[in-house]
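fyi for ur records
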Amino acid sequence: MFRRDWLIAFTFLAPALILLFGFTHYPAIQTLIDSFWTTPRGRRPATFAGLGNYTRMLEDDIFRRAMINNAIYAAITIPTSVALALAMALFVQGRILGRGFLRMAYFTPTVLPLIAVANIWLFFYLPGFGLFEQLRSWAGFSPRNWIGTPDTALYAVTVVTIWSQAGFFMIFYLAALQTIPPSLRDAAAIEGCAPLTFFRRVTWPLIMPTTLFVSVNATINAFRTVDHIFVMTQGGPNNASMLLLYYIYEQGFRFWDTAYASALTVVMVTILALIGIGQFFLLDRKVHYR
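which gave:
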């Protein structure tokens, strides 16, 4: 009977397991293997390169620039998106006029394709004619090319990411806030607890598991969300907005150096794995009551 139950269970799981291995685990293993070989070109087969692709990164200025840009990009988008999502959730969670409309308005950027979002923001940043430039001209400032200037290009695309993903994270915070028992608020009000104190002592600790979940997703997005880079800057000007995933795309599909792109992919996945493990195992004890 026991073996029969296991056989039935594996029969139901087999389609999902086959797809998971075929489209996730096998490509990951193959990418790791390819990172130790050279790229085959024409009739020249691939040869074993050992750690050659990895040592090449140490001398690659564009790779270092992409890593620095990605670190800045993540350092801005992660805390800002989380804080903005929480602020929006707190605002629309209360009894206010037009609450349903506000929730829809905050969530709307999430359902838009990031390519469409990038084109919208291209109009905002358009030198001389964009929305921001019109506001600046009314204030007496000279025109500025936000995505065409190395000093501002990375921050310009960072704003687009925050705007597009904060509404998505807001939904999770809104759900978490609605699980807090009203009796806690009533008891705090009777005791004369200030709203800020109630948030710091009660609300914030209770929504910490949601904060951990949101922060992990924000970290992943900081490394995988590059659709707007394709449309807005293509990593420029002068690699000022080059991110790691876009650099992998360039090496693998533009320059057809698949071996080096595989090594870059292994590095990116390793970074994400280390960050994810750190967030779950180091912060998990602090966000769940034992």
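The chain has one domain: 62-287. thats all i got for now
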